[in-house]
């Protein structure tokens, strides 16, 4: 297990390094400097500005400085917001994004699992068809379309919850639902297939032959074995949520990282784009790592095989 | 002897997209306490379905017990609800499955899997159950039980897992033990160990055993009586001696003929031509007729009833009818039969 | 047993050889035929297929079904509601309506009229609740936009957008572009993925090892990040979006193909064929490709909707097609600007993109079940 983790960590560092390098050089090729938004500057003033951002140095030096700063958690200064550090901006805005992501993930996967479970238990019944259909729809309809439906009908027409902005828990309801629908659908479908497969396996017959009642068969023997492979989809789901927040935060005007990111793209605020990209990458890699480790903890076969 | 189980005219069908598959078409047999009945037959002859139906373990739907009675200690199991069946399963009737690699829950400790039935049926406390689990593991020959019970199935070898499966089945001292090809997936040496184990335990607990197999060698070793199944029906039933030394049904001849023997003088194996019928549309008349070289016109038209050969021996073939011509089993099979007689006799008296 | 008294004549031996009960009555089917039959029996997949065919046909012919051009701007006819002759009962009658409530009936009526600039000639008001029951009064106003703008001879089936462009034409043009990007991306994914996975598995050994390490590093990078960065350097456009989508998209295909070929390579039927002296080309053609092809098709079918989604997503975060080009993503994004008052601008592209996604997913699910009922993910 120790060797496995070390190997994973090494890969992680390599990936991070490559992403950082790639991002840096990409930005160098991009059109636009901090000056493009302030074009009426004299040459001296321009030089001052460039020096301020360290852009007057040769590229290798810039790269070196960038990497050193990065290691200290310093991702540079925003072009748009004077002197505001990218790291601070990200930290300021991480709260709402994490809250939305977490709520959507928990609600989505739990409801999805229940839906899938109901589907599997009533296999080929009306409930099964109903929830399978729901899952296909939930998986197919893009989150932004779903957000539009919620905003227009639940927000505008019915007026149950605020249409946008951030503040009370009511503000989180619509964006959470819009985000949760995808993990819900995926979890439901996955749970259904896994559960059907598990319920058809020999050890379930063994359990029934022991006289275990239906509840015990489904929950004690079935669910646990179906849940283990479900962990593998949690990673892709979390990443899907990251993609989702970019759009959903914009639609509902939530002051999170995603909203800032899109704003920065539209204003060519490269330090923020770079910083956020790196942040996303780190987040992604950590999630994948955590899920891998989690898998090992939960499945006795893997846990012990690695340990021996 | 006390009758433990009496199955009367049991029919089991599966409703599939293609139509009704009649997997079991009227099976009759009984079992006494402490007796071992072996059910033999080809794959798809309905052996497993018959026994799964006894415990009502076939998936319903699509499966259903169409008609018939399963009298267990006088109670008709077909009339019991699922709840009532749960009280019988694992306690009065339990089952050993074929494949030890898949019949244990991979995410549950072995000890807990054995204890589950004890806690449910005998209302044992955790510590009582633990003591009994250790006892059971030792009984089935797993050393270091105290530690082994805390392990997961994947840490056991195939033979060891099958011992665990046996331990699960024996946990509550069942009156009837159903073993569905318990040794097919195991190495020959381990097969013998498991069979010995089952025989030992039967002596101690006086339970009745139904033993499904297609290995006639195993049958001769463990069974008191044998039922031969073909296409969802029992075609011949009798004591081991009846079936091995005085078989009457051409299908039994075929089965015996296809069994390899260590005797050098018989080198040729007999293969039954053709394959079993499609139970989606069972043929009219005797299902075995198309593969039967002694088939008569009547086999095409009417299903043969059970003819009585002796008090313990019955067979369903028109060849036993008074009008039927006298037919001797084919030379090869006769030779095998005599060879087998001498071989078994050579080993000495058996019961 | 004594009650059985069958006729004595029946006890005569018969020849079993002429018996035909052993014959197999079902025709033997090839793998592809069998899969196709199973697919045809799958209602969901067939509905998906029909919906897709209709949508593709509309994308092909829709834009030329009326006289408007997708780029033709005219602010005088901005944000016209949808109007289709004969479909008035569906709400597509070219009117806008509003319900205003206020404590006093008069004020509610004034508010309702104000909502449409007091264009009295073309507003019809109905009192839904005169306020006498203690609740606020409610007045519904229906505004005939086409009449007010003196355009009663015109029919904008899906209405117009903020610049007065016909949404019917733009929606189907957008569908065309979205499908084009998705198919292109899926095709490129397929080619690169199959080649990479195939080479990696076929050569094995060190080649495979290096190629897999490379993939392991690539999968560590979130594709969201790569796509965004790629679009930032390449100028937004159909081609650059396609490239951005394919730059990481092929990885899953490569992994699947490699896994499958590695599995097949050591299976008995391939070994048997090799033992019998079959040349590499024959093994590849007769054993490997047919067994991998199903997987490739299924995976491609799942790639297409995800590419459509990603294209729409990019439009949404401001990295989509440059104006005035329309894709379903840009249209949906556009619709959000005026969702509260003119929901129709969002409605049609949103419905189309959802239909495409649902249809593709259902068809892909059906294909997966047809090719291999046991195969998942």
Features:
heterotrimer, B: 351 residues, alpha/beta, 8-stranded mixed beta sheet, 4-stranded antiparallel beta sheet, 34% helix, globular, disordered C terminus, C: 377 residues, mainly alpha, 3-stranded antiparallel beta sheet, 58% helix
Describe the structure.
The complex is a heterotrimer of chains A (308), B (351) and C (377). With 308 residues, chain A is mainly alpha-helical. Chain A is built from twelve helices and no strands. In chain A, α1 (2-29) crosses α3 (59-71), α4 (86-121) packs across α7 and α4 packs antiparallel against α9. Chain A starts with a helix and ends with a helix. The relative contact order of chain A is 0.13. The mean pLDDT of chain A is 78. Chain B has an eight-stranded mixed sheet, with helices on both faces. Chain B is globular, with a radius of gyration of 21 Å. Helices cover 34% and strands 22% of the residues of chain B. By secondary structure, chain B is an alpha/beta fold. With 377 residues, chain C is mainly alpha-helical. Chain C is 58% helix and 6% strand. The longest helix of chain C has 37 residues, at 167-203. The two termini of chain C are 59 Å apart. The interface between A and C is large, with 45 and 38 residues.
Concise overview:
The complex is a heterotrimer of chains A (308), B (351) and C (377). Chain A is mostly helical. Chain A has twelve helices and no strands.
Helix-strand string of chain A? HHHHHHHHHHHH
- Biggest sheet strand order of chain C reads 1-3-2
Mean pLDDT of chain A: 78
Distance between the termini of chain C: 59 Å
* Oligomeric state of shown chains: heterotrimer
Gyration radius of chain C, rounded: 31 Å
Q: Secondary-structure element order of chain C, as H and E?
A: HHEHEEHHHHHHHHH
Mean pLDDT of chain C: 75
Low-confidence stretches of chain A: none
What class, by secondary structure content of chain A? Answer: mainly alpha
Query: Which residues of chain C form runs of ≥5 with pLDDT under 50?
Result: none
Largest interface: chains, residues each: A-C, 45 and 38 residues
In which range does the helix fraction of chain C lie?
55-70%
Outline type of chain C = elongated
Tell how many strands the DSSP assignment of chain C holds. 3
Largest sheet, strands/sense/barrel of chain A: none
According to DSSP, the number of beta strands of chain A is 0
């Amino acid at each position: 297990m120790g060797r496995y983790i070390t190997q994973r960590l090494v890969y992680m560092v390599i990936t991070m390094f490559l992403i950082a390098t790639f991002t840096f050089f990409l930005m160098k090729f991009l059109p636009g400097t901090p000056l493009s938004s302030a074009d009426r500057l004299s040459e001296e003033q321009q030089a001052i500005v460039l020096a301020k951002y360290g852009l007057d140095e040769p590229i290798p030096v810039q790269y070196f400085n960038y990497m050193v700063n990065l290691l200290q958690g310093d991702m540079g200064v925003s072009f748009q917001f004077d002197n505001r550090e990218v790291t601070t901006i990200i930290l300021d805005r991480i709260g709402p994004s994490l809250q939305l992501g977490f709520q959507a993930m928990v609600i989505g996967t739990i409801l999805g699992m229940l839906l899938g479970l109901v589907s599997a238990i009533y296999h080929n019944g009306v409930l099964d068809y109903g929830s399978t259909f729901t899952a296909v729809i939930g998986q197919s309809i893009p989150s932004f379309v779903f957000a539009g439906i919620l905003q227009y009908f639940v927000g505008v027409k019915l007026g149950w919850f605020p249409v946008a902005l951030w503040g009370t828990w009511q503000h989180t309801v619509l964006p959470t639902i819009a985000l949760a629908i995808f993990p819900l659908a995926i979890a439901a479908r996955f749970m259904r297939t896994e559960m059907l497969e598990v319920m058809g396996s020999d050890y379930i017959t063994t359990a029934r032959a022991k006289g275990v009642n239906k509840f015990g068969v489904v929950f004690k023997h079935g669910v646990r074995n179906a849940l283990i492979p479900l962990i593998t989809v949690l990673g892709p789901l979390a990443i899907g949520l990251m993609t989702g927040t970019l759009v959903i935060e914009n639609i509902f005007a939530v002051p999170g990282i995603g909203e800032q990111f899109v704003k920065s793209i539209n204003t060519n605020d490269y330090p923020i784009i770079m910083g956020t990209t790196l942040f996303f990458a780190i987040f992604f890699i950590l999630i994948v790592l955590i899920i891998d480790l989690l898998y090992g903890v939960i499945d006795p076969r893997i846990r012990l095989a690695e340990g021996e | 002897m006390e009758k433990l189980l009496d199955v009367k005219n049991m029919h089991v069908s599966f409703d599939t997209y293609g139509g009704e598959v009649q997997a079991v078409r009227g099976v009759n047999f009984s079992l006494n306490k402490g007796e071992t009945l072996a059910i033999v037959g080809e794959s798809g002859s309905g052996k497993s379905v018959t026994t799964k139906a006894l415990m009502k373990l076939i998936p319903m739907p699509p499966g259903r017990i169409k008609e018939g009675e399963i009298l267990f200690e006088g109670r008709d199991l077909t009339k019991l609800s699922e709840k009532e069946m749960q009280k019988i399963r694992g306690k009065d009737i339990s089952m050993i499955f074929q494949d030890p690699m898949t019949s244990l829950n991979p995410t549950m400790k072995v000890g807990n899997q054995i204890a589950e039935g004890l806690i449910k049926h005998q209302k044992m406390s955790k510590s009582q159950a633990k003591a009994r689990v250790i006892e059971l593991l030792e009984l089935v020959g797993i050393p270091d039980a105290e530690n082994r019970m805390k392990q997961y199935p994947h840490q056991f070898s195939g033979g060891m897992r099958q011992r665990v499966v046996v331990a699960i089945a024996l946990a509550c001292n069942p009156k009837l033990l159903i073993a569905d090809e318990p040794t097919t997936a195991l190495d020959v040496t381990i097969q013998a160990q498991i069979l010995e184990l089952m025989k030992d335990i039967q002596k101690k607990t006086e339970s009745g055993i139904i033993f499904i197999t297609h290995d006639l060698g195993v049958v001769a070793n463990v069974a008191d009586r044998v039922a031969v199944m073909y296409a969802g029906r029992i075609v011949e039933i009798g004591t081991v001696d009846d079936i091995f030394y005085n078989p009457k049904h051409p299908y039994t001849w075929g089965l015996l003929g296809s069994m390899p023997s260590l005797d050098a003088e018989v080198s040729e194996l007999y293969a039954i031509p053709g394959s079993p019928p499609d139970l989606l549309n069972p043929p009219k008349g005797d299902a075995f007729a198309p593969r039967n070289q002694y088939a008569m016109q009547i086999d095409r038209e009417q299903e043969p009833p059970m003819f009585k050969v002796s008090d313990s021996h019955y067979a369903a073939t028109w060849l036993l009818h008074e009008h039927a011509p006298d037919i001797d089993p084919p030379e090869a099979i006769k030779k095998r039969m005599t060879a087998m007689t001498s071989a078994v006799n050579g080993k000495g008296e058996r019961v | 047993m004594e009650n059985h008294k069958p006729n004595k004549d029946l006890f005569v031996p018969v020849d079993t050889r002429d018996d035909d009960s052993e014959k197999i009555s079902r025709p033997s089917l090839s793998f592809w035929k069998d899969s196709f039959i199973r697919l045809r029996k799958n209602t969901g997949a067939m509905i998906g297929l029909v919906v897709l065919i209709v949508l593709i046909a509309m994308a092909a012919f829709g834009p030329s079904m009326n006289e408007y051009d997708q780029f033709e701007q005219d602010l005088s006819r901005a944000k016209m509601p949808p109007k289709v002759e004969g479909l008035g009962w569906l709400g597509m009658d070219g009117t806008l309506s509003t319900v205003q409530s206020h404590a006093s009936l008069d004020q509610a009526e004034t508010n309702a009229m104000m909502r449409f600039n007091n264009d009295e000639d073309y507003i019809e008001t109905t009192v839904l609740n005169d306020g006498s029951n203690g609740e606020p009064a409610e007045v519904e106003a229906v505004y005939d936009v086409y009449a007010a703008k003196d355009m009663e001879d015109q029919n904008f089936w899906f209405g117009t957008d903020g610049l007065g462009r016909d949404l019917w034409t733009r929606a189907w043009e957008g569908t065309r572009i979205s499908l084009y990007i998705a198919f292109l991306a899926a095709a490129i994914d397929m080619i690169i993925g199959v080649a990479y996975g195939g080479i990696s598995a076929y050569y094995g050994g060190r080649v495979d090892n290096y190629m897999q390490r490379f993939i392991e590093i690539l999968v560590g990078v979130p594709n969201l990040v790569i796509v965004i960065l790629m679009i930032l350097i390449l100028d937004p456009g159909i081609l650059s979006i396609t490239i951005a989508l394919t730059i990481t998209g092929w990885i899953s295909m490569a992994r699947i193909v490699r896994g499958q070929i590695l599995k097949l390579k050591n299976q008995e039927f391939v070994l048997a064929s090799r033992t019998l002296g079959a040349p590499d080309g024959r093994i590849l053609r007769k054993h490997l490709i047919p067994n991998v092809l199903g997987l490739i098709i299924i995976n491609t079918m799942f790639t297409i909707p995800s590419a459509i989604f990603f294209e729409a997503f990019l439009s949404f975060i401001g990295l989509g097609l440059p104006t005035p080009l329309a894709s379903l993503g840009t249209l949906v994004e556009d619709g959000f600007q005026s969702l509260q008052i003119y929901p129709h601008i969002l409605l049609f592209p949103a419905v189309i993109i959802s239909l495409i996604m649902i249809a593709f997913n259902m068809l892909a699910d059906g294909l997966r079940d047809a090719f291999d009922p046991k195969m998942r993910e």
